[in-house]
Amino acid sequence: MAYSEETIKKMLPKTYLQKHVAQEIYVALTHFKNLVPVMNKYVFNDGTTKDLMSLSGTISVMYNAKNYNIPVCLWLEESYPQTAPICYVRPTCEMMIIRRNHITSNGEVLLPYLEEWKHGECDLISLLQVMVVMFGEFPPVCMKPHPEPEQASCWQQFHRQPEVISSADGSLYLSLAREDDQLFQQENETNC
Q1: Which label site among 51, 65, 77, 87 has the fewest CB atoms less than 10 Å from its CB?
Q2: Contact criterion met (CB below 8 Å) for 53 and 16
Q3: 3-state DSSP call for residue 67?
Q4: DSSP class per residue in the chain
Q5: Quick check: pTM over 0.85?
Q6: What are the φ/ψ torsions at residue 114 (nearest 5 degrees)?
Q7: Per-residue pLDDT tens for 106-153?
Q8: Which of 75, 78, 82 is CA-nearest to residue 120?
């Protein structure tokens, strides 16, 4: 869905500098088409929550001559643009965070650009461009390793599906396959 500047402005509570913030978000969305503006609850470190504007989605980066989509979320507090956005890498369930100097274990992005944020000199589009460059040099996520074959058989051992067998007299039997895929002997079976 394409967002107009006016649509974004209507999403913002009056506590924001609506015109300025909407214009910056609109410009960012024209360059980063996989981001979406969303009003959502942000949970601060002290446990308090507040409805904040966020840009969520992916930014495209080049790493080792291949294109990767890095999932991110940028939170804009009501004091934006006087204060820097709060930025996170949000890995999918198949990914894991690579902790680095500029990425915490919970995915918070700590770039010098954010730490040295200056109203009037810094903006969303520049921040996103800095993230693209930094993540292209130092990827913040990677794919989770697949389990080794021994681990897979262990997992399968504990996640085998029982088979319900009914006999001619109407009795039901629950049959579990052993690790060697042979059925247990009848003395180990239970009648239901």
Answers
A1: 65
A2: yes
A3: strand
A4: ----HHHHHHHS-TTS-HHHHHHHHHHHHHH-TTEEEEEEEEE-TTS-EEEEEEEEEEEEEEETTEEEEEEEEEEE-TTTTTSPPEEEE---TTEEE--BTTB-TT-BB--HHHHT--BTTB-HHHHHHHHHHHHHHS-SEEEPPPPPHHHHHHHHHHTPPPEEEE-TTS-EEEE-B-TTSPBPPGGG--B-
A5: no
A6: -75, -40
A7: 999 999 999 999 999 999 999 999 999 999 999 999 998 876 555 544
A8: 82
Separation of CA 146 from chain center:
19
Residue 16 corresponds to which tokens in the numbers above? 């924001």
Residue 56, helix vs strand vs coil: strand
Report pLDDT digits (tens) over 98-116: 998 899 999 999 999 999 9
Element (H, E) at 29: helix 18-31
Distance of CA 95 to the CA centre of its chain: 8
The closest of 161, 158, 98, 160 to 134, measured between CA atoms, is: 98
Structural tokens at position 48: 């308090």
Q: Return all residues near 143 (Cβ < 8 A) that are at least 6 apart.
A: 94, 95, 96
